[in-house]
Each structure stands twice: as structure tokens, then as C-alpha cells.
């Protein structure tokens, strides 16, 4: 049975947390809601033996389906935000710390 942390809804929640930080003018780093979601996502991915590449595919699929992401008119900002979330996800998956 797939983990709720790896569901499309959970992945969209991770991405929405990043978008909210952007809208609030906050830096996109892994703390608070975003950090908690990335920790849970990474732990569940490892528990289910998903490789990092598989997690990234899931995140990118969720990103493409997210209305809030599609609503971003600045394509460069949209790509930069997704890239930042990917970096944070990889950092969490591989246990990197700042």
C-alpha cells in the first residue's frame, strides 16, 4: 500500500508550502511546514525503497498538475522555485545539512 506521504495530494502540499513561502516573500528553505513535509517525504520514499530519481519524477508530476504553479506567469520564477524545491528534497533525501 502506498504511503500517504507519497500521494499526489501530499506532494502537492509540499509544493504549495514552497509557493506560500514565495508569495510571502520568504526564502525557500527547509524549515517549518516545507521542512516537515520534505522530511516526511524523504523518509517514506526511503522506507518504500524509492530512489531519489523516482521521488523527483513524482514531484515534477505533482508540480505540472498544481494550478498554483501553472498560474505563475513568470516562467523563470516558476522554474527557479521548482529547482529550489528539488535541491531541498535531494538534500533531505541524502541527509545533507546546511
Describe the fold and architecture.
It contains five helices and no strands. The mean pLDDT is 81. It has helices at residues 8-23, 32-47, 52-65, 67-70, 75-94. It is mostly helical and 98 residues long.
Q: Between the first and last Cα atoms, what is the distance in angstroms?
A: 34 Å
The count of DSSP E runs of length 2 or more, i.e. the number of strands, is: 0
Largest β sheet strand count, sense and barrel closure: none
Mean pLDDT: 81
Shape: globular
Instruction: Look at the helices and sheets and give the structural class.
Output: mainly alpha
Unreliable segments (pLDDT under 50, ≥5 consecutive)? none
Query: How many individual helices?
Result: 5
Radius of gyration: 13 Å
The ordered H/E elements are HHHHH
How much of the polypeptide forms β-strand, as a percent range? under 5%
Give a topology summary.
Blueprint: H1 8-23, H2 32-47, H3 52-65, H4 67-70, H5 75-94
Helix pairs in contact: 1-2, 1-3, 2-5, 3-5
Brief descriptors of the model:
single chain; 98 residues; mainly alpha; 0% strand; globular
Amino acid at each position: 500500500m502506498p504511503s500517504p506521504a507519497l500521494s499526489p495530494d501530499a506532494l502537492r502540499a509540499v509544493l504549495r508550502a514552497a509557493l506560500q513561502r514565495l508569495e510571502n516573500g520568504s526564502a525557500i528553505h527547509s524549515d517549518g511546514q516545507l521542512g516537515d513535509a520534505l522530511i516526511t517525504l524523504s523518509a517514506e520514499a526511503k522506507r518504500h525503497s524509492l530512489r531519489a530519481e523516482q521521488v523527483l519524477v513524482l514531484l515534477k508530476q505533482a508540480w505540472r498538475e498544481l494550478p498554483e504553479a501553472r498560474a505563475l506567469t513568470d516562467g523563470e520564477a516558476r522554474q527557479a522555485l521548482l529547482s529550489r524545491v528539488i535541491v531541498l528534497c535531494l538534500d533531505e533525501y541524502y541527509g545533507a545539512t546546511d
